[in-house]
Every structure is written in structure tokens, then in C-alpha cells.
Amino acid sequence: MTVSENGERAAALTLTSALIGGINVIRVTGVLDATTRDQFADHLAAEVDEHGLDMALDLGGVTFMDSRALGLIVHHWQLSTNGGGRFALIGVEYAKTRVMWITGLAQRLPLYDTIDDALAAFG
Length: 123
Fold this sequence. Notes:
By secondary structure, this protein is α/β, with parallel strands linked by helices. The protein has four helices and seven strands; from the N terminus they run E-E-E-E-H-E-H-E-H-E-H. The strands form two sheets. A five-stranded mixed sheet has the order 3-4-5-6-7.
């Protein structure tokens, strides 16, 4: 938990999911690091169990991402693609997810600006 400007506790990570065009879109808002990794991992696993391997992660609301979170994203990308599913990352911003570029994964992961772009690529 973090403390907001008015002194109230605010969640460090918020995860919401919706089926859009038959694809499970998971919107991620907040910090993806060691303090939120288990919450993120549990949510992704539950979504795969409930909706299958097709997944798009909307990272437009991410304020920071570390290598542990990136490793989890890579795991789900591999799980999805190896199992015949479709996977996309949406709204990735360099300044907030710099670790993707440092590791070279930004050139390998399926990045899209919008959900519409990702859905069009899925066909």
C-alpha cells in the first residue's frame, strides 16, 4: 500500500479484466515490482484458468516496472504462445517500463499502442 497526498491508503496495484473481442484484456494500474509481484502473478494465473491463454495486458497505467514483473510477463507470453494462444502488450511507455528496452525484450514482445491495434493483429 502507498499513502496518497490526502493521507489515505491507496493500492499500489490495481488489476481489472474484461473480455473484448473474445480476448481477455487485463488493465494494470500502478507499480509492478517485488511488492506487487505475487498479486500480479495470482491475478494472471486466475485469468488463464478462467478465460484461457488469449491475453492482452494493458500497461498504460503502469507507473513503474521492475525485472521481476517483466519476467512474469515473459512467462505468460511464452505460456500463451506455446499453447497456441494470442498475447499482446498495450500502451507500453518507455519511461515507465524501461526494463523492457534494457533487456532487449521490447524488440521481441508483441507491443501495440491500442487495444484496437492488438485485436486487429489477432485477426
